Structure formats: structure tokens, C-alpha cells
């Protein structure tokens, strides 16, 4: 047997759906924090949200915001291929969504927000 210098966990019968002995159960009491479907701006509303909207430019982001009359904000994120590989584009989208989700004042403002990531080069 090969000794790699690391003690591996003793495994139960994983084929029968049992977990390793040293695996702890998931954290309890932590609310699931997700980007809900109701927080998403439908693709058909992207154009409406951009036309006549207030525009803020920050570095590589263009942020369009317009009142929607719903009493809650919705977010749309657009990251083009020129921004980078899929891994980078997805990371940017996750960061933008998390910033939106973690800011209750913005979520309650009743805005349609479109964030467009522009060329990073």
C-alpha cells in the first residue's frame, strides 16, 4: 500500500448512500440566500429597462436603472464574450447578483436594474 503521509477518513458503504464518518452535517440555522426568480429581470424587459433609464458608468460596468412600479427591484446582468472566458463572465455575474441580494435598500426601491459589463481589455 502507498503511504501518502495523510490519514484518509474511514469510509462507510458509500454505494449504499452513507457518508464518510468525518463529514459534518450542513450548517443549520443559516437561511438559504439565493437570487430568487422574482428578483430577475426577464429578458423581454431588458430593452425597456435600458431605454430612458438613468445611466451610471463605473470602470467596466454600465448600470441602467428605471422605476418599474412593482414595489420591488429586479436585476438583469449582461456580460459579453469580449469580457473574458466563461469562468470570468460567470464570476462577474455572481458578484453583481450577490451585491444586489445583499443590499435591501436597492431591492426595495422598485427599480429595474440592468448591469452591463464592458470590455475588460
Automatic annotation (TrEMBL):
Alphabetical keyword list: Endonuclease, Hydrolase, Nuclease, RNA-binding, tRNA processing
Annotated transmembrane regions: none
A single MF term (Gene Ontology): tRNA binding
Coiled-coil regions listed in the entry: none
Keyword Hydrolase: yes
Entry's Gene Ontology cellular component terms: ribonuclease P complex
Pfam families, per database record: Ribonuclease_P (PF00825)
Its biological purpose: RNaseP catalyzes the removal of the 5'-leader sequence from pre-tRNA to produce the mature 5'-terminus. It can also cleave other RNA substrates such as 4.5S RNA. The protein component plays an auxiliary but essential role in vivo by binding to the 5'-leader sequence and broadening the substrate specificity of the ribozyme.
This protein's name: Uncharacterized protein
Organism: marine sediment metagenome
Phylogenetic placement of the source organism: unclassified sequences, metagenomes, ecological metagenomes
Amino acid at each position: 500500500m502507498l503511504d501518502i503521509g495523510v490519514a484518509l477518513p474511514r469510509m462507510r458503504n458509500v454505494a449504499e448512500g452513507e457518508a464518510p464518518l468525518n463529514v459534518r452535517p450542513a450548517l443549520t440555522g443559516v437561511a438559504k440566500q439565493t437570487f430568487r426568480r422574482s428578483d430577475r429581470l426577464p429578458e423581454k424587459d431588458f430593452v425597456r429597462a435600458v431605454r430612458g433609464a438613468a445611466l451610471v458608468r463605473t470602470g467596466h460596468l454600465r448600470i441602467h436603472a428605471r422605476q418599474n412600479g412593482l414595489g420591488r427591484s429586479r436585476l438583469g446582468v449582461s456580460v459579453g464574450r469580449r469580457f473574458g472566458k466563461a469562468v470570468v463572465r460567470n464570476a462577474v455575474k455572481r458578484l453583481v447578483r450577490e451585491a444586489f441580494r445583499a443590499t435591501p435598500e436597492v431591492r426595495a426601491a422598485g427599480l429595474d436594474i440592468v448591469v452591463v459589463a464592458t470590455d475588460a481589455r
